[in-house]
Amino acid sequence: MPELPEVHALATELDARLRGRVIERLQVVAFPALKTYDPPVEALAGERIAGVARHGKFLDVSTEGGPHLVMHLARAGWVRWRAGAPKTSGRPGSGPLAARLVLDDGSGFDVTEAGTKKSLALYVVRDPAEVPGIARLGPDPLAADFTLERFRGILAEQGRTQLKGVLRDQSVIAGVGNAYSDEILHLARMSPYKPAAMGEEDSAALFDALRTTLADAVARAEGTAATELKAEKKSKLRVHGRFGEPCPVCGRRIEQVILADRTFQYCPGCQTGGRKLSDRVLDRLLK
């Protein structure tokens, strides 16, 4: 799933390519992906693009005339730039293509989604705040006003809520998903199940891990071609997606927990005092 660093890089690349260009049309192929009807997609035709921005994990293509095209790439969505006119291939809806934005010279980008579980979302709105997911977003962890004191206030409000859930909750902190929350907790040497309310020393360590992990990932992603972003992200992850491999810090085998909608990884040596966390799915299989 694209998270803050990858969406930031996509926004930067698209802004450089699209700013000042004129939209010919937006063609929606996967109609369930379009979550709005007013204004209609036709409202984008003829509009000059003002820029591309990021709100959490949302991409926002704004126009000088007002309408915004907002995209959430969900788990398996992506944006692929097209330098030339699109080629027609297959029947609509038969492949990964969800939508296609065409500029007045034929170039543009395709929005695709792999797999059978479709959750990519497109919105055409007058104001990004009209998108429910954006309206609920918590603060951006890389913003200048996201201070240690503000972070400590967030943790105190979350109380006994487990850190893994706090970091992934977009209404609490925007932009962090499953992969980077694993990386942040590993760098901070904290259990995914540790309660959010904690002392000043621990909160400072977690704040530093949060900012460092995301800032480093953004720095690596900037200037990386969109086609290479997924591979770049995967190659730099220390624990996420590394089940069974040795921890790069302590050498202990990386373990995982399988939940209903996701799997996360951690290092027992670095994060849980050597204890293996209960994995209810695996525990049932071993009974």
From TrEMBL:
FPG-type domain location: 238-272
Classification via PANTHER family: FORMAMIDOPYRIMIDINE-DNA GLYCOSYLASE
InterPro entries, alphabetized: DNA_glyclase_Znf_dom_DNA_BS, FPG_cat, FPG_N, H2TH_FPG, Ribosomal_uS13-like_H2TH, Znf_DNA_glyclase/AP_lyase, Znf_FPG/IleRS
Pfam families: Fapy_DNA_glyco, H2TH, zf-FPG_IleRS
Source taxon at top rank: Bacteria
Domain spans labelled Formamidopyrimidine-DNA glycosylase catalytic: 2-110
Lipid metabolism recorded as keyword: no
GO molecular function ontology, one term from the record: 8-oxo-7,8-dihydroguanine DNA N-glycosylase activity
Protein name according to UniProt: Fpg/Nei family DNA glycosylase
Species annotation: Protaetiibacter intestinalis
Zinc among keywords: yes
Keywords in alphabetical order: DNA damage, DNA repair, DNA-binding, Glycosidase, Hydrolase, Lyase, Metal-binding, Multifunctional enzyme, Zinc, Zinc-finger
Matches recorded under PROSITE patterns: FPG_CAT, ZF_FPG_1, ZF_FPG_2
GO biological process, any: base-excision repair
Family the UniProt entry places it in: Belongs to the FPG family.
Cofactor: Zn(2+)
Transmembrane segments: none
Catalysis: reaction(s): Hydrolysis of DNA containing ring-opened 7-methylguanine residues, releasing 2,6-diamino-4-hydroxy-5-(N-methyl)formamidopyrimidine; 2'-deoxyribonucleotide-(2'-deoxyribose 5'-phosphate)-2'-deoxyribonucleotide-DNA = a 3'-end 2'-deoxyribonucleotide-(2,3-dehydro-2,3-deoxyribose 5'-phosphate)-DNA + a 5'-end 5'-phospho-2'-deoxyribonucleoside-DNA + H(+)
